[in-house]
Design brief:
By secondary structure, the protein is mainly α. The protein has two domains: 232 residues, no CATH class; 112 residues, Periplasmic binding protein-like II (D-Maltodextrin-Binding Protein, domain 2, 3-Layer(aba) Sandwich), CATH 3.40.190. 66% of the residues lie in helices and 6% in strands. The protein contains 17 helices and four strands. A four-stranded mixed β-sheet has the order 2-1-3-4. β3 and β4 form a beta hairpin. This is ABC-2 type transport system permease protein. It is found in: Membrane. Keywords: Membrane, Transmembrane, Transmembrane helix. It is a multi-pass membrane protein.
């Protein structure tokens, strides 16, 4: 009997077009738009050397320090051959003409001090101005220190020339990708949208909320046994949909979730159960119509996904800094962070913490749902 009710309930859920769309099709459509928006994010053109002119006059010819600094900045230092400046030496008249024709971003003229002439302001002009200011500051520093302690001139120049880096980049086994958090948060939203399925299951066994619930309460079948069958059916349909969405991510959008694929599946299944149990608890507590309960549930889920970085990826880090407690009570963050930890971290400590919290909240939501619905009676049906 229970197996038959389970199969019948699966057939009923597959005909629920609204839940099918919002839980499965909507995330697929949204993730496709994400992919279109992010497709060229890391394939844009590489840095182009800044084209500047230098007025070749007596002051410039006699300033070996500046010529040396400009030459060093115009040399390729990277494997791709990129350099900061592409310098054109010319007369002032030729430099003005090149600037008017937009063939250079600006030109430098040396007299008593360094002058930089531009036609418009922009990033290239700002970089060049910063370079010139840095050069002047270093020259002034060397001049001042050398006048006070001439014997240390060589050491002073060595110190200013030293560009040692005291930090070491360590990004783990996978390269950093800021766009992945959007997909993680979207998948978390799809998991938590299982709440709509849990909401529906509770509503349909309550006699004062639906005609079907009235018939169930006068039938010989135990209400709790029927609820378990229905919840299992909801989990089956919802988890299959989540697996299809995950397959689209991996094989359609070519997203890299990590080598721990079994743990990725575990996160999806745990998130699905969490969403269904959350919706069941909300529906059991609120004695309102299904539409209103669905609206409240969706609002709570979207708020949680927003805080997990679905709309603004930096929100995840803002919450971690300003209100870290929210991380541990936000189901959307727990699901997103589980995917995040599998991709970026070499250990499973953070992943295990997220899974344990998700299972803990699922148990709490289920217990509350059971306690609220098991003894509910009706004066008349």
């Amino acid at each position: 009997m229970a197996v038959q009710m389970y199969i019948i309930r699966i057939k009923c859920l597959l005909k629920d077009r609204a839940n099918i769309f919002w839980t499965f099709l909507f995330p697929i459509i949204l993730s496709t738009f994400f992919s279109m928006a992010f497709s060229n994010l890391y394939t844009s053109e590489t840095f182009q050397s800044i084209k500047i002119g230098v007025v070749k006059n007596e002051s410039y010819d006699n300033n070996e320090e500046f010529k040396s600094a400009l030459k060093e900045a115009s040399m390729s230092k990277d494997k791709d051959g990129s350099k900061l400046f592409h310098v054109t030496e010319s007369s002032e008249e030729e430099a003005i003409k090149l600037l008017d024709e937009n063939k250079i971003d600006g030109y430098i003229k040396m007299d008593d001090k360094i002058q930089f002439f531009v036609k418009t302001s922009g990033l290239n002009q700002t970089i060049t101005k910063s370079f010139l200011e840095s050069f002047e500051e270093n020259i002034n520093t060397v001049t001042t220190l050398a006048s006070n302690n001439p014997g240390q001139l060589e050491n002073i120049i060595d110190d200013l020339s030293d560009s040692s880096n005291y930090t070491e980049a360590n990004s783990g086994s996978n390269p950093p990708d800021m766009t992945l958090n959007y997909y993680y948060a979207l998948l978390a939203m799809a998991c938590l949208y299982g709440a709509n399925w849990g909401n529906k299951e509770i509503t349909e066994i309550e006699a004062d909320l639906s005609m079907k619930g009235a018939r169930i309460n006068i039938s010989p079948m135990h209400k709790m046994k029927l609820l378990i069958c229905n919840m299992l059916a909801a989990f089956t349909v919802h988890s299959i949909g989540i697996m299809l969405l995950l397959s689209y991510y991996i094989y359609g959008l070519k997203l890299d979730f990590s080598d721990n694929f079994n743990y990725v599946i575990l996160t999806c299944l745990t998130g699905s159960i969490l969403g269904i149990s959350f919706g069941g608890m909300i529906s059991a507590i609120l004695r309102k119509k299904e539409v209103l309960k669905g609206a409240i549930t969706s609002a709570v889920i979207m708020l949680g996904c927003f805080l997990a970085g679905l709309m603004i990826v930096q929100m995840k880090y803002i919450i971690a800094l300003k209100a870290p407690l929210i991380q541990y009570i936000n189901p959307a963050h727990l699901i997103t962070d589980a995917f995040y930890s599998l991709y970026y971290y070499d250990t499973l400590d953070r992943f295990r913490l997220n899974i344990v919290l998700m299972i803990g909240y699922t148990v709490i939501f289920s217990i509350i749902t059971y306690l609220v619905t098991r003894r509910r009676q009706y004066a008349s049906i």
